[in-house]
Design brief:
Layout: H1 4-16, H2 18-36, H3 40-58, H4 64-77, E1 82-88, E2 91-96, H5 114-128, E3 134-141, E4 146-153
Antiparallel strand pairs: 1-2, 2-4, 3-4
Helix pairs in contact: 3-5
Amino acid sequence: MATEATGAKFDERFWKSLPSMADYFSPAMKPLQEYLGVGSKEMMFHMGLFLGRRAAEREESPSAEEMLKNLVKVWDRNELGHLEITSLDPVTLLITDCRICGQLAGSGDRYECAFHEGFFEGALSAKLGKPVELRQETNYEGTAGTWCRRLVADLSI
């Protein structure tokens, strides 16, 4: 018989890890997504919005520029890929070697990573207290011709 403490430990482990939850809930989510007409891209965008807002709440820096500079460090420290602020007028972010979406094998075409758009829209909107939209420009760049995510915001900071 499980005790309340044992249940709490299981609960913490299970709900804390997205991969374990995805494996467990996938058989139920697929028919719900189909029934509701909600694609995975839309779900990833909303997950990005949520996490971006949380990042802005956690961030103690006074400005959006400082927050972005700190997120560059977070990306590096957690080995999420390489995040670079290439412009503040307009805000332009370059993401390469991404561990979130990586290089989708066999795509050979432009594709969007809705997570990034959601994350940085959520973070910037929360920090600035107003809606911010990003558009993604995806192309081959860099020394190895790898996929990059260039996100351009509808604002300057």
